[in-house]
Amino acid sequence: MIRVVGIDPGSRITGFGIIDCEGNHLRHVDHGAIQAGDGELGERLRRIFSELGAAIDRHAPAEAAIERVFMNKNADSAIKLGQARGVAIVAASLQDVAVHEYSANQIKQALVGRGHATKTQIQHMVKILLNLRETPQADAADALAVAVCHAHTRASLQRIPGRTSRAGRVS
Fold first, then answer.
1. pLDDT tens track for 59-116
2. What CATH code would you report for 2-158?
3. Binding residue positions for Mg(2+)
4. Active site: which residues (predicted)?
């Protein structure tokens, strides 16, 4: 069994989702959304680092998965997203958690079967795949989706002789 934390970085809201994986069996452990707010960027990044670090410390995942940054039309927003992503990677790395990255299309493909799924479809599939009673908030659902994508990718790579799970690892 391996525990994975999925991270959906954002400068105002960062989602996290933690699952246990054993073969093709997935079990929900925890999820949440870190509300960084509208304050100064430095304070928001500190809150993301602190709260995500506490969740990682509390649940002790062995691996982390994070969504890759995409280029937004607004360069300022993309830079802030990149900074939130960097803080999240450092929060995991400082606790010796290996970090892997996936594109939004890879995540959607792994959950819904097509790369252009809606947020509602992602939330619905996360609820079904993890047997949740209630639909998680959008950012937490996205983070759980990242964790599920990593679990599926990891399981597939383990079935290939001589292949390691280093694909997609942040370096």
1. 999 999 999 876 667 888 888 899 999 999 999 999 999 999 999 999 999 998 877 8
2. 3.30.420.10
3. 8, 67, 139
4. 8, 67, 139
Candidates 51, 63, 67, 101; catalytic one: 67
Residue from 8, 51, 63, 101 carrying the catalytic annotation = 8
Active site residue 63: no
The verdict on whether 142 is a catalytic residue reads: no
- For the record, the structure tokens of 57 come out as 């410390």
- Terminal CA-to-CA distance of the chain, rounded, Å? 25
Beta strands of the chain (E only): which ranges?
A: 2-8, 13-22, 25-35, 63-67, 98-102
Residue 28: what are its φ and ψ, rounded to 5°?
-70, 135
67 carries an active-site annotation: yes
Query: Residue 95 phi/psi, 5° resolution?
Result: -105, 20
